[in-house]
Amino acid sequence: MRYATLGHSGLKVSSACLGTMNFGTLDGVAICREEDAAGIVSAFLDAGGNFFDTADGYTGGESEEIVGRAVRRRRDEVVLATKAFLPQGPGPNDRGLSRAHLTRALEASLRRLGTDHIDLYQCHQWDESTPIEETMATLDGFVRSGKVRYLGCSNFTAAQIVESQWAAQRAGGTSFISLQPQYSLLHREIEAEILPTCDRHGLGTMIWSPLGGGVLTGRYGQAGTPEEGSRAARLKASSMPLAQAWGDAMLNDRDLGIAGEVVKTAAGLGVTPATVALSWVSRRPGVTSVIIGPRTVDQLHANLAGLAYDLPDAVLDHLDQISG
């Protein structure tokens, strides 16, 4: 396992980050049962991984609870990251990045995780309704209290990153050290402005969806029909319209065409398509850590092998051409 400092900080994180969005039950279906999740966490730690990502909105808070119990005996080995923004109730102040909501959200996450501090506390998304000065001052208070060690954000644009860092600097407070963006052979939008902005403003990156929601594994084929139990199938069957739309958007002709090329490339190298996709993204400039979301220990080991694999330069060039 490789390690790197996360942004402009002294925090060392593993090149693989264990994403735990699958831990628990969603829409009445157990995606990854707690006993299976505990085995994945243990195997990840034994492989040298130390970086874990969850959120208060994952499986209704169950993900945080499962992660907290799984790492409790090895808490000092772990860099524990969680996020806040998503609705935690029906009220108007039960979501967002206001001081009122963030304060309650932090205390709830600490209880679910069974810990007295969170290593990396992240804004899950931008909040148009709250002044960024209020958000950054609130987060700085969390750091000063000792309940949070470092701050990060997720899904922010380049302009939003700059506004946040400037707001923290004006107040003499704590700034962000990380961004969690989507990035893969299917989604390279962050290369134009977001990655350069992260570099200038001292943010490391934790990449989510490096396999394009599973599309880059080749499991959907050219027909784009999701198999039972796949992420796209779960999203399309969800009761939430936003999730349904996301599932539909995953299976478009462009992305399926790129996935087909990845499958051909992998066959020529004698590796899996997932190995090709993970190796490519892990070696991109500006990438600190890649979030993987295995549902079994076997998937974990396969993902870690993919991150450790070195693609030939000619293959990297080919992948750039087909996905750029």
Q: What does this molecule look like?
A:
The chain is α/β, with parallel strands linked by helices. It has a single domain, classed as Alpha-Beta Barrel (TIM Barrel). It contains twelve helices and twelve strands. It has helices spanning 34-46, 62-71, 99-113, 132-145, 158-170, 194-200, 231-236, 241-250, 253-269, 273-282, 297-308, 313-323; strands at residues 3-5, 12-14, 16-19, 24-26, 29-32, 51-53, 79-84, 118-123, 148-154, 178-180, 204-207, 289-292. It starts with a strand and ends with a helix.
Which key features would you list for this structure?
single chain, 324 residues, alpha/beta, TIM Barrel, 8-stranded parallel β-barrel, two-stranded antiparallel sheet, 12 strands
Question: How would you summarize what this structure contains?
Answer:
Helix content is 43%, strand content 15%.
CATH class: Alpha Beta
Q: What's the count of strands?
A: 12
Just name the CATH architecture.
Alpha-Beta Barrel
Number of helices: 12
The H-and-E topology, N to C, reads as: EEEEEHEHEHEHEHEHEHHHHEHH
The low-pLDDT segments are: none
Strand order of the largest sheet: 3-6-7-8-9-10-11-12
Write the layout of secondary structure elements.
Elements (H helix, E strand, L loop, with lengths): L2 E3 L6 E3 L1 E4 L4 E3 L2 E4 L1 H13 L4 E3 L8 H10 L7 E6 L14 H15 L4 E6 L8 H14 L2 E7 L3 H13 L7 E3 L13 H7 L3 E4 L23 H6 L4 H10 L2 H17 L3 H10 L6 E4 L4 H12 L4 H11 L1
Parallel strand pairs: 3-6, 3-12, 6-7, 7-8, 8-9, 9-10, 10-11, 11-12
Antiparallel strand pairs: 1-2, 4-5
Helix pairs in contact: 1-2, 2-3, 4-5, 9-10, 9-12, 10-11
